[in-house]
Amino acid sequence: MSDVKAPAAPDLSGWSCPLPLRDHPRVVMGHGGGGAMSAELVEHIFVPAFGGQTLTDLGDSATLTLGGARLAFSTDSFVVRPLFFPGGSIGDLAVHGTVNDLAMSGARAAYLSCGFILEEGVETELVGRVARALGAAARAAGVEVVTGDTKVVEAGHGDGIYINTSGIGLIPPGVDIRPQRAQPGDVVIVSGEIGLHGVAIMSVREGLEFGVEVQSDCAALGGLVEAMLAVTPDLHVLRDPTRGGLAASLNEIATAAGVGVRIQERAVPVPPQVANACAILGLDPMYVANEGKLVAFVPREHADAVLAAMRAHPLGASASVIGECLTEHPGMVVARTAFGGTRVVDLPLGEQLPRIC
Amino acid sequence: MSDVKAPAAPDLSGWSCPLPLRDHPRVVMGHGGGGAMSAELVEHIFVPAFGGQTLTDLGDSATLTLGGARLAFSTDSFVVRPLFFPGGSIGDLAVHGTVNDLAMSGARAAYLSCGFILEEGVETELVGRVARALGAAARAAGVEVVTGDTKVVEAGHGDGIYINTSGIGLIPPGVDIRPQRAQPGDVVIVSGEIGLHGVAIMSVREGLEFGVEVQSDCAALGGLVEAMLAVTPDLHVLRDPTRGGLAASLNEIATAAGVGVRIQERAVPVPPQVANACAILGLDPMYVANEGKLVAFVPREHADAVLAAMRAHPLGASASVIGECLTEHPGMVVARTAFGGTRVVDLPLGEQLPRIC
C-alpha cells in the first residue's frame, strides 16, 4: 500500500464529510482494497452523496422491484494487472465478478453491460483477445452481453484496458438472501479452498514461484447457488470473498447483522501452495482474494443437506463447515486457533495487494 | 486525433477479426470518438466476441424482458476532462448520459449503478464534490443510485476520476422506439440548439473565449420524452446526439433503418456562440457533441402535436423540424444548404475533440 503526500493546506471549504477520512486528504491504493478504508469512502462520501436505503444496505448487489419483477442489479470495475494470469483474464473476471455478485442475492444473472476504457496505444489484437475471453465466459455462465460502451484515454492515463460490467438477474420467489439475515445458530460454510486468486496474481506479477504454478479459482458461481437453492430457498447470507478475502466478508456480515462469528481456523481449507506463499510473504490466507468461492450462512437444520448439494457440484467439491454464528461479541469475528486459543479476525485496513481484480 | 506508431511486425496470430481495422494495429484516440472508427471496434471486435442479437441492434440502450417486465438497460463510462466545466461536471454527465440513453428507448430511468476508478493521489474532497454532483443530478432526474464499486489505480494510470454508470428503466406498454423503425415520411425534429456541450468543454480546456461563456446543455431528458409519449406512444426513433454530434446520430439511424435522411441546413438551430466557435476552429456544428438534446423521427400525422408538446417543456422550448426521412439514397444523410445546394453529411471518422464525456 503506497501513500501520497498531501499538499500543505488542502482546501476543504464546502466539504461536508461527516467524519474525517483517517488523515487521508488524498486517495491512496488502500481505498480500493475492499477493507476498512474502502468502507470509509463508501460510508463518508458515497452514501451521504447518493442517499437511498438500497445503497446503504451494501450487499454485493442491490435488490429491486421493477414492473413487478424482483431483480438483482450489480456493478464492478476491473483494473487487474496483468490482463492475463494463470487460470483467467480480465475478461473472465469481468463476467464472473458481476455474475457472482448477482448470485450472492440468489439471482441467476441474465444480462450484462460492458464498458471498456482503453488506453491509446493498446494493441487492437489484445482488445480482441480480452473481448473474446469475456464473450466465452459470458456464454459459459449463461449470461448475455446486451449493451456496451467504449472510451479511449490518452497514453499515460490508463493501463491498457479497464472494464466495467453491470448485470441484472431475476431473484426466484421466496428467496431473501442478504447480510442482515445472518442469525445466531447459522452454520458458516465455505465452498472450497481459499486464497488461490490472490496468490496466482501475486506469483505472476512479482515473478515469485511456489513450487507448482498456482491457478486462479476464477469461476461463475450461479450454478452452485442454484444447486444450494434447490435444497431450500431459505439460505440466509451468501458472499463471495474477493478483495479483503474471507476476513472482510465475515466482518461485513457480522457488522450488518449485529451477530458474532466464530470460525475454526483448522477447518478453513487452505491449499498447501497458498499456505506456503503466505508463509514466505508474511500474509494471512484469510485476507487473500478469491474469485470463485462463496461463504454461506445457512440455518442449522438445512446445513447438512446444503453441504451435500454443494459437494455434489464441481465448484463446491471441497466445501466445508468452518464455523458458526453467535449472539456473543456482535459485530466481531473470532478464530479458534489450532492451538486452542482465540484470536480476533479484524476487517483488513486496505489490501495486501492492489489491483487484484 | 493522435496516432501511435505500430511496432515493426505486430503478432496477429490467433486474431480472427473479420476485416482489418483500418491500418490501426493499436488503439488511437479516434476509436473513442463515437464515429466510424468506434463503430469498427464494435463491429469487428465486440459484436463477434460477445454475439447476441440485442447487442447487434446497437441502440443507445438494450431492450429486454425479465420476469415479465419490459426493461431498458444501458451503460456509459465517463472520462471527460476537465471534471468540472461551465454548466456541469463529470457527476452530472454520469447521470444524464445513462438516463438519456434509457430515455431514447422511451424508458423512464429507475435505478443506476455507479463505478468509480480513482487515481491514487486524487483529493478525497474532489471525489466528494463529484459524488455530491452525481447524487444531486440523480435526485433531480428521479433515479436512485442503488449499487456501486470503487477501484483505485496507481498515479499515472488514470486521470483523477473515471466513472461508469449503468441504468435500468421500465418501458411503457405499446412503446417501441429504436433506430430500425425510421420510415420514409417521418419528420425529423431536434429538441433545441446544438453544439453547446462540445464548445463549452473546448473553451475551458483550450482556454478559448468566444465572447460570452458557453454553458454545456447537459440535462436529463426523461421528462421531455414523457411529454412526447403523452401525445403518442408511436414515436419511431429517439437518439441523443452526444459524441459525433447530430451527424453521427442521423447516419446511424439512416443505416439501421435503410432509409435516406434529408435535412434543411438552415433549419438546424445553431446558437451564435457555437457558430462563432466553429467558424474560428474550422469545425462543423453538426459534428459537435450535445448532452441535453435529442433528435426524434416522428410519424408525419403526429409531428405537429409532438412538436407542440416539446415546445411546452423547458428542455424543448426551441425544438424545431429540421428534415424528413426518405426512400431515396438509403443509408445516406444529405443537407440542403442555405444556397440551395445539397451536400452529404457523412459519419465522422473519429472525434474532433477527445474525452468530451
From TrEMBL, chains A, B:
Belongs to the HypE family. It comes from Streptomyces albipurpureus. Residues 60-171 form the PurM-like N-terminal domain. It comes from the Bacteria. Residues 183-325 form the PurM-like C-terminal domain. This is Hydrogenase expression/formation protein HypE. The lineage of its organism: Bacteria, Bacillati, Actinomycetota, Actinomycetes, Kitasatosporales. NCBIfam families: hypE. InterPro entries: HypE, PurM-like_C_dom, PurM-like_C_sf, PurM-like_N, PurM-like_N_sf.
